[in-house]
Design goal:
The chain is built from one helix and three strands; from the N terminus they run E-E-H-E. By secondary structure, it is of the alpha+beta class. The chain has a domain of 49 residues. It has a three-stranded mixed β-sheet, with helices on one face.
Length: 88
């Protein structure tokens, strides 16, 4: 991890499956991430949602109904190592 950045945080709520389907339960996931900027933030969040859905399904055998990605902070290449100033 880059100095000055925090690790992504995640919360999940899980409900066990009621029937005998392929899924072992349902999950809703909320992630907080930091991203580089400028970038396509929507595409990055979409990629995170897809990756989480696939990994939770593959590893835990659960259906993921909702993945919420919150961008906590943006990091600019112009301010790396210079503190937290504003870039114009």
């Amino acid at each position: 991890m880059t100095p000055g950045r925090t690790a992504p945080r995640a919360r999940a709520s899980v409900r066990p499956a009621l029937g005998r389907g392929r899924s072992l339960g349902d999950a809703r996931v909320h992630l907080e991430v930091e991203l580089g900027y400028p970038s396509d933030i929507g595409a990055q969040c979409g990629a995170v949602r897809r990756a989480v859905t696939e990994r939770v399904g593959g590893l835990a055998g659960m259906t993921v109904h909702d993945v919420v990605v919150t961008v906590e902070r943006l990091h600019s290449a112009h301010t790396r190592g210079e503190g937290r100033g504003r870039v114009r």
